[in-house]
Amino acid sequence: MTVFLALTTSVLYGLSDFGGGLLTRRFPALTVVVLSQGIAAAVLGVVVVVTGGWGEAGPRLWFAFAAGLVGPLALLCFYRALAIGPMGVVSPLATVGVAVPVGVGLVLGERPGLMEATGVAVAVCGLVLAGGPELRGAPAQRSAVVLSLVAALGFGAVFALISQASTTVTGLFLALFVQRVTNVAVGGAALLVSVRRGTAPLPAGGFPWGSLPALAFVGLSDVAANGTYSVAARLGPVTVAAVLASLYPVVTALAARGLLHERLRAVQAAGAGLALMGTVLLATG
């Protein structure tokens, strides 16, 4: 079940990133973050009320609040790195954030067996290669590398924090709601600063209402991914759940290949193959 839920997390994150990437061609990135997370927060608010999740309020919600603070900041660093450095360098660097939840699992006493450890190593190599490093590209600027690593630590920290935010299903709904409200508050503040500096929050033609379903899909997929990862990390080893949940770059690349007909580089195809091999080793370990 841990393997299934963690792989589901990768699929949801990968599709959410793909959808978000398409939307940033119409909207500023901050607008996409605020609107998609706002829709998710509204839906989660209804779910919390219906399930009585307010009764699960407790100290663990501070983990959700922290995840809500870190997430948007990591995303902003990631987008900024993409703007100033080669995507083929930035993308794989951002995926090394898997080291954070894996490290947390090891500190908490998890010791994967030989088969699982091999699967982790193979899958990590695969997801880094699947990021598509441009072996012949220009070297990334130093600031882009630093921003990429900060984003990686942020993404990894969100994995680690959200897995500690609840112990029950209804508590998980409340934790995800708190995380999303915090995301909207932080992203909204950053968007306000951006607007005051002269950046338009919407396209010149106004809000394209036809994009609303896509915004909802991005936000709700991201929420669902957080939820499935939290359950996966609670049911099984965090080291396994974190690595499998971090295979989303493979999903994003495959979605771009299938829907946008983008060609995979040889190194990306090799990375996808290694990631799948690592998954099989983890599933059988």
Q: Would you give an account of this structure?
A:
There is one protein chain. This protein has 285 residues and is mainly alpha-helical. The chain is 75% helix and 0% strand. It has 12 helices and no strands. It has helices at residues 2-23, 29-51, 61-84, 87-94, 99-107, 114-130, 142-162, 169-196, 212-235, 238-245, 248-259, 266-284. Helix 1 (2-23) crosses helix 11 (248-259), helix 2 packs antiparallel against helix 8 (169-196) and helix 4 packs parallel to helix 7.
Keywords:
12 helices, single chain, mainly alpha, 285 residues, globular
Q: Which consecutive residue ranges, at least 5 long each, have pLDDT under 50?
A: none
Task: Report the radius of gyration as a whole number of Å.
Answer: 18 Å
* Topology as a string of helices (H) and strands (E): HHHHHHHHHHHH
Dominant shape: globular
Q: Count the helices. How many?
A: 12
What percent of residues are in strands? under 5%
Provide mean pLDDT, rounded: 79
Give the distance, in angstroms, between the N- and C-terminal Cα atoms.
13 Å
Q: What helical percentage do the residues reach?
A: over 70%
Estimated structural class: mainly alpha
The biggest sheet amounts to: none
Number of strands: 0
